[in-house]
Write a structure and sequence with these properties.
This protein has 281 residues and is α/β, with parallel strands linked by helices. The chain has helices at residues 14-25, 39-47, 67-75, 109-114, 116-122, 134-140, 207-217, 252-260, and strands spanning 4-8, 32-36, 53-60, 64-65, 80-88, 92-95, 104-107, 127-130, 147-151, 163-166, 176-183, 193-200, 221-229, 237-244, 264-277. Helix 2 (39-47) runs parallel beside helix 3.
């Protein structure tokens, strides 16, 4: 049976490249791909089982966690991460006119932030307009000489009249984004990373320290921790943690849940999975 994979569209986005590469790594038989408008829509498609899988960006090496992904993962605790893939991000400025005609630059907020230094130097007076994705921005500038988009360098190939006006324009040469492959069923495959999210019973001295000490006492190293507001009240947060798994530690999942769960108001385990890197886009 073919597997339908949702991703952040339209076609030509970095998410499409990640979805294709992850489907290949997962050895999916006859995958079909569904471009969605917005990360929430991507995650809802797999959470409601309209699609069997979904691919979303979760972290960027320059701008940090992708907040829309983190917030929606917390909202759908029945989802699991089956695999992660890190891909290099090399942005291009794309448009129909010339560089000196550009007065508006469109792109996803993270892409605009990742190119903020270049924009300040080369297009200091251009208005920066956020869009739902880089590929949507590229589509929106077609036919306009005063608009340009920040997007993937190969995203002009299917759109008539568009050219690369500058490349690469991202401020950090080593810019990378980690994408995750989501499914609504827990994977039996072990991996080198586990991802958790939790909220605390109360905002008291030592509450967060107790949770982090519990992880450390099991001999597990955290490779990432970040917080997001709970949206219930000011000063209340959700914490997202990635843990490097020790192959010698047996039954880490049961041990962690047993010791950690009493310390948390809510604990979500997104599972363990393999993470790899792609050397090209």
């Amino acid at each position: 049976m073919p597997t339908k994979v949702a991703y952040l569209g339209p076609k030509g986005s970095y998410a499409e490249k990640a979805a294709s590469a992850l489907a290949e790594l997962e050895k999916l038989d006859q995958p079909t791909f569904l471009p969605c408008l917005g990360i929430r829509s991507v995650i809802e498609n797999v959470a409601t089982k309209h699609c069997e899988a979904a691919v979303v960006p979760i972290e960027n090496s320059v701008e940090g966690g992708v907040t829309a992904t983190l917030d929606n993962l917390w909202g759908y605790p029945n989802l699991f991460i089956k695999r992660a893939l890190v891909i290099p991000i090399r942005h291009a400025l794309i448009g129909c006119g010339s560089l000196n005609e550009i007065s508006e630059v469109l792109s996803h907020p993270q892409a605009l932030a990742q190119c903020s230094g270049w924009l300040a130097k080369n297009l200091p007076n251009a208005l920066q307009l956020p869009t739902s994705s880089t590929s949507e921005a590229v589509r929106m500038v077609q036919g306009s000489k005063f608009r340009a988009a920040i997007g993937a360098p190969k995203s002009t190939s299917d759109i008539e009249g568009l050219n690369q006006l500058a490349y690469p324009i991202n401020d950090v040469a080593g810019n990378r984004t980690r994408f995750v492959f989501l499914q609504s069923k827990e994977s039996e495959k072990k991996g080198n990373i586990a991802s958790l999210a939790f909220s605390l019973h109360s905002n008291k001295p030592g509450s967060l320290l107790n949770v982090l000490s519990c992880i450390a006492d099991l001999g597990l190293n955290m490779s990432r921790i970040e917080s997001r507001p709970s949206k219930r009240e000011l000063g209340e947060y959700i914490f997202f943690v990635d843990i490097e798994l020790n192959n010698k530690l047996l039954n880490w999942n049961n041990k962690l849940n047993k010791d950690l769960k009493p310390l948390c108001e809510n604990l979500v385990n997104f599972g363990s999975y393999e993470s790899s890197e792609l050397d090209y886009v």
